UniProtKB/TrEMBL annotation:
Keywords: 2Fe-2S, Iron, Iron-sulfur, Metal-binding. It comes from the Eukaryota. This is Rieske domain-containing protein-like. GO terms for molecular function: 2 iron, 2 sulfur cluster binding; metal ion binding. Residues 17-117 form the Rieske domain. InterPro entries: Rieske_2Fe-2S (IPR017941), Rieske_2Fe-2S_sf (IPR036922), Sol_Rieske_ferrdox_dom (IPR054716). The keyword Iron-sulfur applies.
Amino acid sequence: MASGSGDEEGNTEGGSWRLIGPASELSKKRCRLMHSSLGYDSDVCLFYVKGDFFAMDARCSHSGGPLCEGDIEEADGVLQVFCPWHDYDFDLRTGKSGTSLQQQVYEVKLEDGKVYVKHPSRLSLQPFPADQKS
């Protein structure tokens, strides 16, 4: 089951549904880095935890740490990712932290066995060639 809805705080308003790939393949890893056609600062992490997919900006809003490399834990029913650099936590559903930090989250949907993420740019599991960024 995919997670996220358009009215959650921290969710992006704009964007289009971007096909990421088959859920059967994407569910084999806890986190995958999705490269944005807008460049490094717009990359997204796709998490698969407890049967749900979640998407948020790949770089920690504190200092840019790689959230795909962070630990994922559940506390009081809240799934959180911890930045590996300074241990800041972010709720996978809302992007909220135990601090004043906020991480951008994106809607995820499953349709016909495929995973889609709503994002303003094209997303790919492979880096975009430098001349194709837009």
